Amino acid sequence: MRLELRGITKRFGSFTANDRIDMVVEPGEIHAILGENGAGKSTLMNTLYGLYTPEEGEIVVDGEPTVFEGPGDAMRAGIGMVHQHFMLVPVFTVAENVVLGQEPVGKGLIDLKRAREIVRETSRMLGFEIDPDALVEDLPVGVQQRVEIVKALSRNAQLLILDEPTAVLTPQETDELIEIMGRLRDAGTSILFITHKLREIRAVADTITIIRLGKVVGTASPQATETELASLMVGRSVSLGVARSEATPGEAVLEVAGLTVRDSHGVPVVDDVTLTVASGEILAVAGVQGNGQTELAEAILGLQKPAAGSILLHGTPLEGKGVRERLDAGLAYVPEDRSTDGVVGEFSIVENLVLDRTGAAPVSRGGALDMRYLRRNATERVAEFDVRTTSVDRAVGTLSGGNQQKVVLARELSRPLSLLVASQPTRGVDVGSIEFLHDRIVSERDKGAAVVIVSTELDEVLALGDRIAVMCGGQLVGIVPGGESRDVLGLMMTGIGPEEARERAAEHHTVLGEADLEAEAAVVDDGVTDAPASDARQEKR
């Protein structure tokens, strides 16, 4: 399929999400769309998939202008989409999910035998096996994503949209997905790959289109460096590294011992976790989303009541202390879900910047808020954290997600701290602002605070962590030094202990190294000497 977008414009009221976007996706091409959060990538894909109707422009499929009035039209035209948040029914089997809405029928009943055959046939075409009778809720996240891909391809999708497909995958699952994408491309399927992860773009893309503030600002080669791609995304030079000195840990600030937190069904979501964080160090907690990291952070703040274990701050038990008391003791908290737990959308920026400090000077005097101080504070914080707004009186709920996150971080990092607990601190924040926020977090460490970072982004974990704790299934798999390899961390995220993970990673690299040597020898035999082996393999493929 050859897809062409001509002048696509999509508005929401006075806001233009997509502004006259032109783009061409050739048959059998992996076309990556790169842009900051809020740049308009997902809006463009939802328009292409028939979920939105553009105000201007046209979609051209194989030379024919086409109008999609809904996803059904897009699917009939040969376009499939795997959403960032999977659209599967957990209590249905794989086969039932794959044929849902297009069930094969025999003798007036759903033909489940044929449904199973569809799953097996499509899976084999992709080079993997999926049990058609497995319940989706029992499958690992990586396999659920494969089910989504099988579902799209079983409906004869010739162009597949993958919207942030690696957001919930381990590094190993990400590598497997990249291999699958390569096989699909080789079979003639076009892929639109939406992501903000520069490493993945360079690994898999044939063509890269960069979108900034709803407009196409250029294209790039997959051979471009990550720094070059980041600069194109934000329109200025960006440093992707985090400048930080070696940590000099002091006394223990946070001590967690035997901590267990149970969900509403009594199932442990944090299971006997023990760890210590000292002043002047950052402990980064890694793991696939949903493995107890969120509940651990919430228990430290007092939002979750432990079923067992203890939490000490500077040697003082926090049991029985409420959230306000913990904040007053020097704990700062950046929640995972900013819109629900981090800000009050109807309140102004001025008000949100002092939500947890309204009872004491300088925020209030004589029982009344000091509005002069509040406005001065807001003006300074907005400038310091580059919050994009027309006024400090603007309701936070009208800001973009990234700017809401900056308000939360500005509030939490603008007072003396002894312990900072931050869940997904840069989620939804553009590359340029991530650079600034990472520097601020390191600055808090250097001033003597203990820092706990919970992040599903391995790049962030590796950039910030002096030590890295990995969680899986609510348990602490292990704590390793900050310089640990991505492969080892990825294996630990599946529940494998540190020593075994290192052994497996070493074996994998040995095999991979032999394969690379063979490929380089083949390249020399072919007389190709100027290109790196990876480029030559790409050409041979």
From TrEMBL:
Pfam families: ABC_tran (PF00005). It comes from the Bacteria. PROSITE patterns: ABC_TRANSPORTER_1, ABC_TRANSPORTER_2. It is a peripheral membrane protein. SUPFAM superfamilies: P-loop containing nucleoside triphosphate hydrolases. GO terms for molecular function: ATP binding; ATP hydrolysis activity. Keywords: ATP-binding, Cell membrane, Membrane, Nucleotide-binding, Repeat, Translocase, Transport. Residues 3-238, 254-498 form the ABC transporter domain. Its main location: membrane. Coiled coil: none annotated. SMART domains: AAA. Gene3D superfamilies: P-loop containing nucleotide triphosphate hydrolases. This is ABC transporter. The lineage of its organism: Bacteria, Bacillati, Actinomycetota, Actinomycetes, Micrococcales.
